[in-house]
Design brief:
767 residues, two-stranded antiparallel ribbon, 28 helices, mainly alpha
């Protein structure tokens, strides 16, 4: 008996120990803390802003965003303050230089500009113009000069390219992107090897003018590591619709392919990548940058072949098992230089700030790789979205929605045909989940749900316009159809390739017919004008006939109704409600974007209008985030409040677009929205016995309904779920939760000042 008891206790102890064993991701997180804490304890923050320190800070900021460790943030802030938010300090533009130099006159030399990356990141955490004033002064002066050969060495592509995309992200100034493209094409003419896609360190090392001692091409690992990591950072911030984006994507993928082929069996890359014999042995800095660059591409869908994952894992294994030392230092970093040097000693005591920064970049991206399918916030969002979507789509895909959906309408229903319920439910739901179910299949449990819903949605789309289907929607005979047809059109705009393009020709033709016949509806002098423009702009994007007058007149009316600071009036007079969230910002932006995509030339400059509307949406997203209380609630006012989370649609939209304004980080927005969702949906009667949403705000509250509210109306709440369209490895999901503005303010922490935003973009009729 005693022996049995001892065996049971031993077994329980083993199970307990097994359960307590940290996951690999937890182990990597612990390593990040060990390495970074060790570095910061032994190196004062008050140091030069020159490239080697600045490269460390790019890794430190990545660690801050991933972990939320305020000590990391404080360290970079103290460094920036020590350097007065400058690189090289000269204020005399006449003496500014961009050749190699370590003096204060070398303001235009990229090794003095990499610090601006961290200053820009710090600005996005806490906007203060002082933080980026010098960065803008230097870079905008540089872009005004006729010289285009500023990035004449491979390292410079990491030092400067991400500065330009980060400042574009903050300012919206297209010149940052266009000059970046010009600069890199000039760099390519200097040091790109067209045969391999690899970069020589600079013009001195180009083959065959320069060869290794064995007559081979001499590609320096850290040099190409700078480039691959720099391209990853550029793509992270480059707009999806930027005209030269494919140039950068192709360059990145080709370089990643070439790099992968040159990895050593031990997981590292040798200093001379094609000729290890001249300088054999471990090297960490190039290996860390390559590992980061490969992992970023894997996490963001660019590198899908298994060979990249194998290379990244081997790279991490080297970094974790060989480069990482027991005291938390990162060894085997080749000292400052520009080439592989025969006979140079590189061992476990070879430690450097830039090597530690590169290690942190790789470690953070590896955590994102490991945790992408286990994020608890994303799991909560997906379960909630699936719970909303499945009853609607599973029934409609079989033509049984109108048979099985339990219809509930407002107590003061205005008497219209209750069949509008079904079109409202389908259109509004699809507008919210379209980005999510448009993500590619990935073999995960979440991916299986997405694939299931996408299949059901495509069948439902077909039934929606098939007159022979029991779920043919109420497209005709009443004006309400204009509203919910617009949400269906919006869902196609948000998932064009995955949801519109796969439809068969007959179904597409039926949609075009149904959308076109809605011109019979004369929209009221309110937000309804945007329902017309959204539908017509989809027709334009799809290459069908569209009514340009309905589009352009809606645009002009919306401009007349803009009241300032992100708010639109719902018609000629202002109403204090959330229609700026429900309709104005999203549908105005989508109308303008679709017209840009269509390539149509009319009196209106859609691109300029879109830029202005985007700035307004960014301001309104700031307003919405500040309305979220420290507890995670928001004020209830105005009509249509049963739309629930749709109130937060512009904030969600900016996150999905990758356009969150400075002062709103991924971690704080996700944290705020998730907390609001928990407060709204957990433990409350939001779903009825059939699995459909109930009328109410936080539970069943039919008294808050308006005369037009029905069960289908409620599915507008899905519009806050747009960030699910970001991959699971995106920083929106993987960055640490951070306190949102009101939580900072009410807990005595620094928070961004708020101020009036004026329209800075003026545009006039083109002819």
């Amino acid at each position: 008996m005693k022996k049995t008891a001892l065996l049971i206790l031993a077994g329980a102890a083993m199970l307990s120990a097994s359960a307590a064993k940290p996951t690999e991701a937890q182990q990597v997180r612990a390593t990040i803390d060990k390495v970074n804490t060790a570095w910061q304890k032994s190196h004062p923050a008050e140091a030069t802003p020159f490239w080697h320190n600045a490269a460390y800070h790019t890794g430190n900021m990545e660690a801050y965003f991933l972990t939320g460790n305020e000590d990391y943030l404080d360290y970079s802030q103290r460094w920036a303050e020590h350097n007065n938010w400058k690189g090289a300090r000269s204020d005399n533009r006449a003496e500014w230089k961009y050749d190699y130099g370590e003096t204060d006159r070398h303001v235009l030399f990229g090794d003095w500009q990499i610090c601006f990356q961290t200053y820009a990141d710090l600005y996005r955490v806490l906007p203060d113009d002082r933080r980026i004033k010098r960065a803008r002064e230097v870079m905008e002066y540089q872009m005004s000069t006729p010289q285009n050969d500023y990035l004449w060495w491979a390292d410079g592509l990491y030092m400067v390219m991400p500065v330009m995309t980060k400042l574009y992200h903050i300012t919206g100034n297209d010149k940052y992107l266009d000059k970046l493209y010009t600069y890199i094409t000039v760099s390519d003419s200097i040091m790109l090897d067209k045969e391999t896609g690899l970069y020589f360190r600079d013009g001195k090392y180009v083959y065959p003018k320069h060869k290794t001692a064995n007559g081979k091409k001499d590609f320096w690992a850290r040099g190409d590591g700078w480039v691959l990591a720099g391209l990853a950072k550029v793509l992270k911030d480059l707009p999806a619709d930027y005209k030269h984006r494919k140039f950068f994507e192709d360059k990145y993928v080709r370089l990643a392919d070439a790099v992968t082929a040159l990895q050593q069996p031990g997981g590292y890359w040798s200093r001379s990548m094609m000729d290890e014999e001249i300088a054999p042995g471990y090297e960490t800095s190039g290996t860390a940058f390559f590992t980061y660059g490969l992992l970023w591409g894997i996490n963001n869908g660019y590198l899908k072949d298994a060979k990249y994952t194998e290379a990244a894992r081997k790279g991490w294994n080297y970094l974790n098992k060989i480069a990482l030392q027991k005291d938390g230092s990162i060894g085997y970093v080749q000292p400052i230089g520009e080439k592989a040097i025969p006979g140079q000693v590189v061992d476990k005591t070879s430690v450097a700030d830039f090597g530690t920064g590169a290690f942190l970049l790789a470690a953070c991206e590896y955590v994102r790789f490991l945790e992408k399918d286990t994020n608890k916030d994303r799991a909560y969002w997906t379960e909630l979205a699936y719970r909303m979507a499945h009853p609607v789509l599973s029934n409609m895909a079989e033509g049984k929605l109108q048979q099985n959906m339990l219809v509930e309408v407002s107590p003061n229903w205005d008497g219209r045909d209750k069949k509008v319920t079904y079109m409202e439910a389908f259109g509004r739901l699809m507008a919210g989940i379209a980005p999510w179910i448009s993500l590619p299949d990935d073999g995960t449990a979440e991916g299986a749900k997405r694939a299931e819903l996408r299949d059901l949605a495509l069948k439902s789309y077909k039934n929606a316009v098939d007159p022979a289907s029991p779920d043919y929607l109420g497209w005709r005979g009443h004006g309400q159809a204009l509203v919910d047809a617009a949400y269906i059109a919006e869902s196609f705009l948000r998932g064009y390739d995955a949801l519109w393009m796969p439809l068969d020709d007959t179904t597409k033709a039926r949609y075009i017919e149904e959308f076109s016949q809605l011109r019979r509806v004369d929209p009221p002098y309110t937000n309804w004008v945007l329902f017309s423009s959204t539908i017509e702009s989809l027709l334009a994007k799809a290459g069908a006939d569209c009514d340009e007058y309905r589009i352009n007149s809606a645009i002009r009316k919306v401009e007349e109704w803009y009241t300032g600071d992100g708010w639109y009036a719902d018609g000629p007079s202002f109403a204090f409600d959330y229609y700026s969230s429900y309709v104005f910002h999203p549908m105005y932006l989508e109308t303008l974007q679709a017209m840009k995509d269509s390539g149509r030339y009319t009196r209106i400059h859609y691109g300029q209008y879109h830029k202005r509307a985007l700035k307004r949406a960014q301001k309104f997203s700031i307003v919405l985030e500040r309305l979220i209380s420290p507890e995670g609630t928001f004020p209830v006012f105005g009509r249509s409040i049963p739309y629930r989370m749709a109130t937060m649609q512009p904030l969600a939209l900016m996150a999905w677009y990758g356009k969150l304004p400075a002062g709103l980080t991924h971690g704080q927005v996700r944290g705020a929205l998730t907390t609001v969702m928990h407060n709204m949906f957990d433990g409350k009667e939001n779903f009825n016995e059939g699995g459909y949403l109930t009328i109410g705000f936080a539970g069943r509250q039919p008294n808050v309904a308006d005369w037009y509210t029905n069960k289908g109306s409620l599915y507008m709440t899905s519009l806050a779920f747009l960030p699910l369209g970001l991959p699971a490895s995106h920083p929106f999901w993987t960055d640490a939760e951070q306190p949102w503005t009101s939580r900072k303010a009410w807990n005595g922490k620094p928070f961004p000042k708020d101020h009036h935003w004026r329209d800075e973009i003026r545009t006039y009729d083109l002819f």
